[in-house]
Amino acid sequence: AGPHVERIANELTASSPVTLVIDDYHLIDNPRVDDALERLIELAPETFLLVLGTRIDPALRLSRPRVRSQLVEIRADRLRFDAGEAHLLLDNRQLTSEQAASLCERTEGWAAGLVLAGLSLDRSDDHDSFVEAFQGDDRLVVDYLTEEYLAGVGETDRQRMLESAVLDQMTGPLIDAVCGSDDGARWLRTLASANQLVIGLDNTDTAFRYHHLLRDLLLLEAERDIAHRLADLHLAAAHWHHEHGDTYQAIHHFISGDDLVTAGDLIAVHATKLLNDGQFSTVMALLARLGDLPEHHSRSAGTKGWMDFSTGRFTSARRY
Description:
By secondary structure, this protein is mostly helical.
């Protein structure tokens, strides 16, 4: 390919400005194509502009053009729709600005998600109910995510994605603790590099989360395929978070793992700190998730009584 690339570069030098657009570059899996493109970038004149459309970072060495300010990167955060843009996109559906903003929030401004929401909305007679219920189990969303994002995932990776879907945020050590692996950090970086719906939360590639709609789908499949393991996955996450000082996440996962007694104990121990941090509604929400535990668990009863007293429900407070 070398001589061909050099000939193309020479012709570009002798021609007027040229822009080459290559869409879906993420489908390229031949390193010879990457090498040829890198060589073209190196030899081409300043009048040459290359535009790549890709869902993942291309396997190109881009450090040099990046340092030389010859590279413009338009990433997901800049492509994300805001509420006003979402309203314009969905304008012919006669949505209110509040309904459009809600769909924008649920799709995280993802253009394809908004388009799919609009197509599903065309089938609905009740906009309010549709907007309130829209999530990753929408039929069109399921089909799109399955065909475009999960169809090419190997069975081992798919299994780990289902297991890790119980997590709000993911780090390598947490993945290892929950999934029983020993390469969680590397796996997360590799997964994020190949899937734009796995979102990095920092600049060091250590913390990630799934896009809301993708996580909805993964949880749906997890309920179908590994329902018998979900409680154990939550408990593994709970113990890891407890050991690492994240009380709220520990309580959340103990409740989801159906260990309500441990969750109630932790709420009782940490309620004062949570309240001092201004998390009154958080404590109330956690207590509500305990069901009838305060009826027969003294520490939960004490916490419930104190919260009732604080909100003026004195009869209930005295009972607990």
